[in-house]
Amino acid sequence: MRNSGKAPTFIVWVISLVLYVIALVATFGHVGVPPQVALWSWVIGFGLVLIACRVRGL
Fold this sequence. Notes:
It contains two helices and no strands. It is an all-alpha fold. Helix 1 runs antiparallel to helix 2 (35-54). The longest helix is centred in the last third of the chain and has 20 residues, at 35-54.
């Protein structure tokens, strides 16, 4: 199978990184972030990277 996707743009990568850091810090309890926010930041950040790898220009 040939990979036809492109790497995500820098801004999408930074947004995903910020969401990942929020989820990571909340998971280890260093910041008082509600558990639902931590869960959804994992889901949205990972989904954003997956979509950005498949859609050109995102």
